[in-house]
Amino acid sequence: MAVSALLRTTEVVVAPGGAGRCHVLIRNNSEVVDQFAFSLRGDPGAWTEIRPAVANLMPRQEISVELTFRPPRSHEVPAGEHPFALVIASREDPAGSVVQEGVVTVEPFTEITAGVVPETSTARRVGRHTVALDNLGNHPVKVEVDAVDKDERLTFRRRPPRLELPPGHTTFTRVLVRPRKYFWKGENISLPFTITVTAPDSPQIGLDARLEQKALIPRRVFWLVSALFGLLMVLVIVVTLLLRQRPVSIAGPSSDRPSGSAAATTTTAATSSAPRSATATSTPTSRVSAGGTGRVPAPGGGETVTRRFRIETLAYPNVGGGPQLFSYVVPDGGSYRVMSVVLRNTAADTGQIQIRHGSTVVGTVDLAAIDRDGNDELTFVPDHPPLVRPGERVTLAVVCTNRRDPCTPTGDFTAALVR
After folding, report:
1. 50 within some domain
2. Which of 39, 95, 233, 316 is buried most deeply by CB count within 10 Å?
3. CA of 103: how far to CAs of 21, 83, 207, in Å?
């Protein structure tokens, strides 16, 4: 055999990131000068240095070859035994090459990293956080995940609380955070806490996190309720104003009323040439107004049929949206032409009153112009007496400018039947 070799140390222990060495004694047993090349087989070959890699030896000459093992501090080189073989190849006698075997033991190391996502959760009842665990060491590690808050305002649930991490792997665990007390409304409450990761032969890892606790009822619900309440108040105000106007519609006598009642409200004029003021003063002043008909002689023979009716008002002061309307609906039985209106203002109200036929203004009178004694009245004779047909309205539109009390003017109408 051209060469002989002796591995002085067959087992080498080395820490990851460190260095371990062993020596091999090489001897040229041939009678000629020979060149020897050294190579390492096995996993340690990637992180082993051989010096020298090639040696020229004279006959009977010896040399010591140094093997330096430098395993990286990485999960790619697992902890434990890694066998290797040193091959000594002769150039002059290839068949006479020899192999020396040994074992490199890589020590274990532990390196755990952790992170939490999200760091801040926002919830009303349960906040959810995910903890990512990375094992950067070279051996499996059992870890325990826990959480604590110094103020004891939270409870925690871990899924799972304990797990084993293979080297070079990432594992996830869930941490559910629940507040001990809830609140209905208000600003968010910040509740900090710490997630701890504990592993053997490794310092404890602390991850700061936070729960932003929200009120049980969203803020937009209060806004919606407030808006609905405001709309309801506006609706109540509008309905109240409409009810205050209370338009009065006076129809003719009902069919089941005794004939004596109708006769009580009927006035027959002596002659068609009687003054209009005298005719108006004979109208009854009962608060419950009723209509009636009568017959008076017409010039040149024949009779004129008249109808008289009263419109009473109750107009509230300082009501916006225009005048308050009080109407009389002409019953069936023929068309009438309004000849005169006797206006009374017994309460000395202030404001304005209009006489309307439908949407047409027949006349406008200031309440202050009507005598305030309560004994006299103002007779209004339209320049163009309106013709009102069955179903049409005759209206008193009142604008009341009293300071406090409502206005109560009345109007007694005299209308002639048109045949």
Report:
1. yes
2. 316
3. 12, 4, 41
pTM of full prediction above 0.90: no
- Interacting residues of 131 by C-beta distance below 8 A, sequence separation 6+: 114, 115, 116, 145, 172, 173, 174, 175, 195, 197, 207
Task: Mean pLDDT check: name the lowest of 71-85, 157-171, 172-186, 293-307.
Answer: 293-307
From 6, 144, 166, 204, select the one nearest 86 (Cα to Cα): 6
Burial of 30 (0-12, 13-18, 19+ CB in 10 A): middle
**For residue 407, what are the domain limits?**
259-418
Q: Which residues contact 118 (CB under 8 A, 6 or more apart)?
A: 129
Give the count of domains, the chain: 4
pLDDT tens digits, 71-117: 999 999 999 999 999 999 999 888 878 999 999 999 999 999 999 99
Q: What are the tens digits of pLDDT across the range 59-75?
A: 999 999 999 999 999 99
d(CA 351, CA 366): 6
Please check whether residues 74 and 24 belong to one and the same domain.
yes
